[in-house]
Amino acid sequence: MYRGMKYLAPLALFLTTFGLVPACLGQEPAAGRALGAVTKMDAAARQITLQTTTGEIAVTVDAKAKVLRVAPGATNLTNAAAIELTDINVGDRLRARGRMTDDQKSLAALEIVVISQSDIASKQAAERADWDRRGATGIVADVTADSVTVNVRTIEGVKPLVITAAPNAIIRRYTPDSIKFSDAKPSKLSEIRKGDQVRARGNKTPDGAQMTAEEIVSGQFKMIAGLVLSVDPQENVVRINNIETKKPMTVKISTDSSLKKLQPMLAQIIATRLRGGPAGDGSPGDRPPGPPPAAAGPGGGRGPGAGGRGDLQAMIDRTPAIKISELMAGDAIIISSTAGASADQVTAITLLAGVEPILTKPGTREMSLGDWNMGGGGDLGGIGQ
Description:
By secondary structure, the protein is mainly β. It folds into three domains: 10-115, CATH 2.40.50.140; 122-220, CATH 2.40.50.320; 222-289 and 301-359, CATH 2.40.50.140. 14% of the residues lie in helices and 38% in strands. The chain contains six helices and 19 strands. It has helices spanning 10-19, 22-25, 117-134, 264-274, 312-317, 356-359, and strands spanning 33-42, 47-52, 55-69, 81-82, 93-100, 106-115, 135-143, 148-154, 157-173, 185-186, 197-204, 210-219, 221-232, 237-242, 248-252, 258-261, 332-338, 345-347, 350-353. A seven-stranded mixed β-sheet has the order 16-19-17-13-14-15-18, with no helix packed on it. The N and C termini lie close together (9 Å). The relative contact order is 0.18.
């Protein structure tokens, strides 16, 4: 579920870094600062063009201005390093503080704080690896005052996992029709309900039955299976016939949607295990394509990315991405999306092709979604490609 599942979008990470602690931001009103990505840089002229959420702002850096770099996730300037304007590159995230003009289109900066694009990429890669190693995805089966129990689907079957929140755990929840992690809102454990989908990251007990989660993301998701009727790459729309309702639907593909196609061997292995077939002898031929099993993570529990016998979602996450233009009429696909207002139109979090073996009932040509679930797909948990 990656690309979505974006571990933390660069802008979201940037805003987190600069938005939590007043000591880092200072106490200036919003009009005195600008946050965004560098789109143009002229160090000689001391000019920076910044793309913010409200538009472009021209930043002129005062000759006596402080220019600092901080690491992603920093909440203050204690460990900030002084840099030169020439060290700033297009794509870096930047906060400029100073005097804003009345039209809010330019700012004379007295302080510049930068997070480099390469540092953000490194942090995202590290977080992706940690989600693979210590994350888990499942459907909520039970909720108590201080824990949730989720059923995690693995190649070996469904296994319960009891999740409790660590002190200061980050808990977020998707809103209807949202597909991005940055759209998830701060939440509480008490807002999670049976039937929700949850992705959590934390340390597991040695038997893998319990997790103390540092991050929990939940939401109400729906799964749809259908046969492709037509594909419009220009409009980023796929029209399908829902195999359950037999009615046509429109699937919108956004820049945050994740499109993947299962390799035939992995699709067959998943289909066999979902129908209660043998797990195999663990030989290399029995393991789905992908990285070899990971070593035990903290707490002794194997993460969902632990090779072919792990969390199905982790296997899907490692599946190669495809383009909308690679879909053909007649292809069977499974779509995950948040529960929204429209019954005949959804925006895909994850669109998964190559699923004919999973949907086709043995000995027939009939297709059904059954109880298949790919754990929310796409962006649940903030995990990205």
